[in-house]
């Protein structure tokens, strides 16, 4: 009978001293590898986020110019409503033009991170309005881009 069988039969549950630290070292190494992988994943995510924000900053002036052009078109439509004595439609349309001008100015003046935080806050407060606005904005932007390519 070997030593392990003998201890088991006599109720001795002590481990031998040379096997006690091997398992601990292995779990320490696994924990260290896990922490290193998590750190690397955080660094990669941070780099991707920074790159996305940098690209957004470089493109927001372009988008702001398109929003300003849209605002001018809306203002022109408001003048036509006013000329046709459709005062209430003209008033709503002027307000829309003012809001889009304000939005274009905010795009130019604020950094992308701040705009992203504001969009996240708004989407939490008003999810239906946010989704509707995104759909409408996407539709208008696609129509505008198609017409500008011609």
Automatic annotation (TrEMBL):
Residues 1-13, 40-56 have a biased composition (Basic and acidic residues). Residues 1-56 are annotated as: Disordered. Residues 26-39 have a biased composition (Low complexity). This is ElaB/YqjD/DUF883 family membrane-anchored ribosome-binding protein.
């Amino acid at each position: 009978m070997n030593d392990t069988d003998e201890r088991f039969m006599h109720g001795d549950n002590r481990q031998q001293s040379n096997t006690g630290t091997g398992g601990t070292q292995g779990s320490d190494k696994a924990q260290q590898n896990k922490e290193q992988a998590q750190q690397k994943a955080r660094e990669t995510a941070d780099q991707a986020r920074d790159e996305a924000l940098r690209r957004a900053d470089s493109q927001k002036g372009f988008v702001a110019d398109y929003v300003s052009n849209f605002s001018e078109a809306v203002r022109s439509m408001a003048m036509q409503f006013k000329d046709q004595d459709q005062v209430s439609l003209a008033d709503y349309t002027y307000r829309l033009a003012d809001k889009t001008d304000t939005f274009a100015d905010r795009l130019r003046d604020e950094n992308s991170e701040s705009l992203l935080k504001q969009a996240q806050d708004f989407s939490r407060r008003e999810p239906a309005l946010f989704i509707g606005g995104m759909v409408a904005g996407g539709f208008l932007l696609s129509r505008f881009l198609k017409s500008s390519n011609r």
